[in-house]
Amino acid sequence: MSRFFASDNSSGVHPEFLKAMAKVNQGHVIGYGDDIYTKSAIAEFKTHFGKDIEVFFTFLGTGANVLGLSALTNPYSAILCAETAHIFEDECGAVERFGGAKLIPIETKNGKLTVDLIKPHIRGIGMEHHSQAKVISITQVTELGTLYTVDEIKTITNFAHQNNLLVHMDGARISNAAVSLDLPFKAFTKDAGIDILSFGGTKNGMMYGEAVIFFDTRLSKDFKYIRKQGMQLASKMRYISAQFESFLKNDLWKKLAEHANAMAQLLTKEIESIPEISLSQKVEGNGLFIKIPKPLAHKLQEKHYFYDWDEAKDIYRWMCSWDTTEQDIKDFINEIKVEIAQHNY
């Protein structure tokens, strides 16, 4: 089967995760997470983030984001996020429908919020006519493939906590971020003041499975009920847990993310020789956001599917995955050059 650059969700499942699920596919265990495999997976998370956390597994990234944010907010609350945030652009209004809180999108140049951008939206506090700002949600790696530094995160979390706000991190690609930053997960999440984290596994080679991690465990008191109501409580949870245990042990997460990031850098290097294509953002994870003539993009999409990002500006997204190969990139670049040579773009 061919591989293409549409999404790291398009890739298959790494064999180690299939082995992990097959290994636990024996006998009977107690359902809904009261099994030895789930306890072992949670213990692995605690080796990375510390013992004083609460971990809950979900099927989906949207589920992790929506339920995690619902645990922090009331229906009259407001959640501040970048206008490119997945919770705003790509979750079909699920945060607002499920929890009732209002999403307030903030325009950014690179997908990253700053305190200066956030401040104008902290208003009407204590007034019953206004939704009450409660959460700042940031994404790491951002939806534009950019990274927050530790200092940038700390600046946001310090501001938030000084103003009685909480900070959520959407970590769908947190492994790619950790590799790029060359830091352990804890350094740019818990130690940087993040209150709750959506920890992604699917985009880094797992079949399915995400985690909601509470660093302020007081916030998790009622989460087991929220997860059940939100239809994200897996009855046969051992199959999610087994994958996460394999993911976190022996740095498999790191190996897969390093490869995806390296392939993105190789693809970046290759397009430097193609003047018709340019980057719209610096490549800091496993994705490229590129400006390319629309006719050329549409022609390439016929064989190597990838998504439009901002078609009005001729910007498209190319994603690399754990299974992207150098040959995939070589073939793709060759086809681009042939297409450009044959037509006037």
3D structure, described in words:
By secondary structure, the protein is an alpha/beta fold. It has two domains: 16-250, 3-Layer(aba) Sandwich (Aspartate Aminotransferase, domain 2); 252-342, Aspartate Aminotransferase, domain 1 (Alpha-Beta Complex), CATH 3.90.1150. The protein has helices at residues 15-23, 36-49, 61-72, 86-89, 94-98, 115-118, 150-162, 174-181, 223-229, 238-248, 252-271, 294-301, 326-342; strands at 54-58, 77-82, 102-106, 132-139, 166-171, 196-200, 210-214, 278-279, 287-291, 307-310, 315-319. The strands form two sheets. Strands 1-7-6-5-4-2-3 form a seven-stranded mixed beta sheet, with helices on both faces. Helix 1 packs across helix 10 and helix 11 packs parallel to helix 13. The radius of gyration is 21 Å and the shape is globular. The mean pLDDT is 96.
Secondary structure layout plus pairing:
Elements: H1 15-23, H2 36-49, E1 54-58, H3 61-72, E2 77-82, H4 86-89, H5 94-98, E3 102-106, H6 115-118, E4 132-139, H7 150-162, E5 166-171, H8 174-181, E6 196-200, E7 210-214, H9 223-229, H10 238-248, H11 252-271, E8 278-279, E9 287-291, H12 294-301, E10 307-310, E11 315-319, H13 326-342
Parallel strand pairs: 2-3, 2-4, 4-5, 5-6
Antiparallel strand pairs: 1-7, 6-7, 8-9, 9-11, 10-11
Helix pairs in contact: 1-10, 2-10, 8-11, 11-13
